[in-house]
Amino acid sequence: MPVEVEQFMCRTDNFGVLVHDPKSGQTMIIDAPEEAPILAAIERTGWTPTMILTTHHHLDHVEANLALKERFKLRIVGPEAEKAKIPGIDETVKQGSVVRLGAETIDVIETPGHTAGHVSYHLPASKVAFTADTLFALGCGRLLECKPPVMYESLKKLAALPADTMVYCGHEYTLANARFALTVDPGNPVLKERAARIEALRADNKPTLPTTIGEELSTNPFLRWHDPAIRKHLGMESASDAEVFAEIRKRKDLF
Fold first, then answer.
1. Predicted TM-score of the model (pTM)
2. Could you give phi then psi for residue 153, rounded to 5 degrees?
């Protein structure tokens, strides 16, 4: 039986997430952006958390760590490379580490780029991934602590996940990402259709997530460095994939 996911808004544009394994009854939180919305989600679902999985150290992902740890006596798991910056951390993970939620196996994928120690979490049995601020719907995170080739390698790891993997990201940035994507990949009919759908969702104040790896591969320019139309549009037909990615990221920074 796959896990159940409760997604909700925190702060201004962060997503909060509860993940519940119905077989064992265990629940975990993916990042802790803000205490009140997380407590409301726990109350709404009736799921009591035993663990927080932290993706990276930024305040808008860890601010509620200590309050939730005190309230629920839960354990906090996070990246080894950022342990000194994550409040209340009990257990560290890195590439190849495995965490368990009941019988569910959670694979840790190191995805540095946005921060130097960022990790993503993949639940292969339930076909779900939590990519926080590495991979967004139609985008990727800003490169705050790493150079473009580092993020490129991280995105390659996520792009290799099964196409039907459901992807939950850290922020509701999809509308702005869609508008940018159309400037890089203007001839993509699948992207045009998706962008129109996103405009309608956000006009109704509805979330644009989750997405899937397959949908991102067909529409997200940050995973389409190999696409001939994008390369031609950028005037980079003979550039390396990493160079094309770096140019797209640079353009997004200026968009």
1. 0.98
2. -65, -35
